[in-house]
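Example for tutorial group B:
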């Protein structure tokens, strides 16, 4: 089994039906670690030693958050600034995370067609995630194709939310059980609930 930790990072989670359903699904998955960063650090007083040990104790780090102005919520940025220290995560002798995997589970406000050269966002979603991808690379980690729900601000129907949450649960279970095909997922760039690249049990 892969050691998976899910970091849920949402400052306005009580207003988000999608992320609340996803977090509930993640909490119900056995054999993984679930951390609500805003619940643990409401004043942004991050325990660096604790967080670094969490990273050392896990193989896959999955960050769940809504895309805020083409970036992460502020607490996740603060977490990155403090936890991914020189000499620990990168730089001279900073190889403690080498060989691990970073993945994102994102809700994006705009529809899928907006994240194209012809759409009003002008670029594919993966372009906006380049800083996070390079962060993973600098730390010697692989960066997995993100799990995405587009159109989160248009009030998705309950059926769509539940389907996405079920897909999220299936994704986490597959990663935990070493049945998730990261290579196939990366060829698609973005992963969605109806197209999870899950390997068959032998």
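The residue assignment follows.
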């Amino acid at each position: 089994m892969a050691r998976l930790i899910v970091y849920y990072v949402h400052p306005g989670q009580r207003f988000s039906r999608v992320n609340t359903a996803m977090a509930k699904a993640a909490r119900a998955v056995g054999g993984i670690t679930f951390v609500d960063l805003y619940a643990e650090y409401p004043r942004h007083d991050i325990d660096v030693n604790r967080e670094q040990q969490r990273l050392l104790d896990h193989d896959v780090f999955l960050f769940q958050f809504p895309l805020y102005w083409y970036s992460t919520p502020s607490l996740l940025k603060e977490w990155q600034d403090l936890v991914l220290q020189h000499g620990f995560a990168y730089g001279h002798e900073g190889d403690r995370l080498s060989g691990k995997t970073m993945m994102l589970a994102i809700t994006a406000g705009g529809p899928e067609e907006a994240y194209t050269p012809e759409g009003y966002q002008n670029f594919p979603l993966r372009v906006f995630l380049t800083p996070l991808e390079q962060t993973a690379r600098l730390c010697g980690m692989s960066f997995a194709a993100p799990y995405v729900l587009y159109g989160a601000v248009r009030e998705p129907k309950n059926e769509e939310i539940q389907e996405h949450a079920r897909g999220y649960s299936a994704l986490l279970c597959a990663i935990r059980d070493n049945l998730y095909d990261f290579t196939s997922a990366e060829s698609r760039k973005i992963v969605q609930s109806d197209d999870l690249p899950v390997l068959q049990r032998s």
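The chain has a mean pLDDT of 95. Compare this with the pattern of hydrophobic and polar residues in the output above.
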